[in-house]
Design brief:
Layout lengths: L8 H9 L1 E4 L2 E4 L2 H22 L4 H9 L8 H8 L7 H5 L5 H13 L7 H14 L5
Antiparallel strand pairs: 1-2
Helix pairs in contact: 6-7
Length: about 140
Amino acid sequence: MTRSLWRSPRVRAAAVRSRITLAGDTLARGMLGWSVLAWSMLAWVAVLGGVAIADPQPQAQAQELTQLAEGSGRDLTVSRCIVCHSLEYIPSNAPAMNRAAWGKTIQKMRDRFGAPITDDEGRQVLDYLATNYSGKP
């Protein structure tokens, strides 16, 4: 009446408890296995934490540096455009824009994205953008 050692419930339970399956690899529960797992997790936390707590100043500085040109309609343009996007959108798109393109863009912002701009405000914003930010003839 010999029983295989593996068939003993205590031996099987101990064997199952002594192994951890991680991504298809089996790590022994000993000091080496846990330390590898701990260091791996610590590395991921450091990487993700570094991304999450990255210095917010570059973005804040970029917003501070984006100053629109002085002119009639500037304040209205800033107050309406900043609701949906940064002001950087305006000078970065200016080289490819003319009055007609700005008009289409304003209409798109109103129709598709619900920009809070009345018809009169739209004309004032268009005049400002066409005067100060038209890079395309």
